[in-house]
Amino acid sequence: MDYSLHRYRSACGRLDLVARDYPARDFTRDVAGEGPAPVLLMMHGLTRNSADFEPLAAHLSGTYRLIVPDQRGRGLSQWDPDPANYRPDVYAQDMFALLDGLGIERACLVGTSMGGLMAMVMNAVRPGLATGFVFNDIGPVLDPAGLARIQSYVGPSGPMASWTAAAARCRAVNAVAFPDYGTAEWLAFARRTCRENADGTVSFDYDPAIAQGMAGDEPDTVPPDLWPLWDALDAAPVLVVRGALSDLLSIDTAREMAARHSGPYSHVDVPRVGHAPILDEVPALAAILSFCKEHLD
Question: Of 18, 119, 156, 221, which residue has the fewest beta carbons closer than 10 angstroms?
Fold first, then answer.
């Protein structure tokens, strides 16, 4: 998968941010006429980075243009000296700066967990931007059990001695979500989630200060009363991917999401996976490919 690194300034103008840009094979391919290839803006979860979408990008790159950012404080993007800025409305403004800088007027918004919250905020601020939405294990109501689990592990932690140790740490934190993973899968997971330090040790690839926004019973990272943002999606095409073992998006919430949406809506549960699917699982990938073909091509 070939991609270039696009460097841009945050919406506040203070931070250097980075996004992967995967071009379509024919950047100006025709789709029943003239025009550029459809664009997907792919936004990762709280403790992840752009590498989280590598498995899905392997199936979509070339057909679509993929813009995959490292949010501030993650991956190659600069850490924010003010942790109060680690919240979805600020990230959403960064995404507008990214798209505007690239001259992209419309895109399908793909959001995993926190990235899905960002998609809802972006739609409320700039209606009509999105050609469609793919929500990965996230909705307007976040189950307290899942929030508590995330709060239990996000934040400062010591470096790990090796990639093997990093894989073991990832397994300890996420085994409930991926009970069928073996050694190879956990090592690949660690490679996407962590970075190697100059001394050969390995650390999680995010600013530990993002934990401050997850503290307390009402975390700043989770906007209050998200149903109005969900309802504002109106008739836009929506796909919801849910881990069947998810402790963050309940099946009852997913059913209400479907009942309250007036436009094209599809839902898929990924068996034997919790929060959040990697999106290369067979049911998830099939649903995403079908959604893109129907609503983006």
Answer: 156
